[in-house]
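Q: Can I see a sequence and its folded structure?
A: Here is a first one.
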Amino acid sequence: MFWRKKRLNVEFHDQIALSTPLEELSFVVFDTETTGFEIFGSDRLIEIGAVQVKNLVVTKQSFQTYVNPKREIPQIIHQLTGINDEMLDEAPDSFAGIESFFHFIEEQKCTCLVAHCLPFDLSVLKSELNRHDHEAKIPRGVDTLDLLRTLNGYSPKKDLAEYAQEYGTPVFERHRALGDALTAAYLFSALLHRLLDRGCKSWGDLLFMADQHRRQIAMS
């Protein structure tokens, strides 16, 4: 008998025409905080934050939850984030926290997840679900770093706050999930307007732009 993971059912509104105008899309920009970078090892999720971008602007729809990592918070992470063990004692476990986050995504009728350095945040979600013997369908995602590389070329990787300052968008509480999600969301909104000026009008155009620098790397 083959062992199969359970599936966390969540409805994403990603089955849309590529010609759908950007103004009609609902994005959820999110961020995670963890005890470290060894997310497939001993490090764990401790916070999720998210905010909706719709009609090309950041809305008031937001989400935040702490997550109990079932381990101590390293001192360096406490110093960086301000999160301590006591703040997480009564927090839900990672499965319940991710499930609540997915419900928020459903409520926003999300077409696309967005994050700054998206692969890391998606890996955090997947690794935590795996710990609970679950998997989930994750919708198409867009990384703000990919859009920045498409717009700016191969500039050195900067901190999220540096990009926000470069584009004149606000910087919220750093190294906290909701604060970084808000910073990324306002940056993403500014990037969407820049892309519109370059003729990026639709869902299909955005996907093309997001993948453009990867195609350039493959051809070089």
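Q: Show me another, different protein.
A: A second, unrelated one:
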Amino acid sequence: MKVCHTLICCFFLSLQDGNTVLIDHSKISVFSGTKGGDVMVDCGLFSSGTTKIFCKGECEPENILINTTDGTAQRDRYSIRHEERSDGRVSLYVTITELTKSDSKLYWCGAGRTQSSVSYEKVEVIVRDALLTGNHEDKLLKMRTGEDVTVQCFFTSFGISKFFCKDSCQEKVLVGTDGYRAQRDRYSIRYLTGTRGGSFLFVTITNLTKSDSGQYWCALDSSSLRDFELIVTDASVPSTTTTTDQSDTTTEGVLLYVGLTLVVVFILSSLAVLIICIKRNPTLCGLRTRGNSDATNMEITPYENCPPVSTHEDSTYQSLSPASMDQDQTYSTLTHTNNTYETL
């Protein structure tokens, strides 16, 4: 019983790592991984691993992701390596990291002695939003409107009838089939078996709306069920907000730049006018005071043409003869060094 429990635990761990090979009815190996995680693809056995190649779709030049003769190689999110076996053949492995929904597609792996002798194997990668194993995992999925959601449901048994239901499989079957694939409107279902046992049901809803919120069920026959809850909210628009913020910041920057430019121009213009005025009026030639009984007001009056001040020590006087003097008048002579006065 303990051995059985250990094997089941190991199998669940291999599911989480994405290493379990799923087989499509067309015999193509399928590998699944969770969005944001990694997936390792086992490309199979090749007679030689001298030249290794990994392509998105057919290996046309524009589809080649890795083409190398080294033992290991990496390009962006893709890496490739090979392991030599005792029988001379090589196993080729490819790892894709940071999975996105756009990674869900067909790939081609190839190996050979030379570029022209490479043999190819087709593989498929499915990127899921959640894996349900019935082992107490989180069953709540939060998505945005317009997105697609893909859930992988694991069953330890095989079944004939497969259903994808909302609320209850007795009331609302979204899509069902006895085959491997089915689609109805925005709902699809796909059935795969595992090389290590068990079976898998992939259910997908495209172009989600808020009305898609609710309880869903994966059903295999009538006895095996897996459920999950889906909550769909409006798509956020951070890019618009970011653009608006950037626009506002840019506008503020332009206004600040224009304002500073105007201030600088005003200052330079003022300086230019001041310089011109100084050149035309090099000195302040005089002070004129005007007073009254209450206060004294001072005026500074510039003169453009100021006569030079005399530097002679002698004073010049007007002389009047005694004969011409009026006896009734009084005359006085005022003298001051370096100035000229009239004598009356």
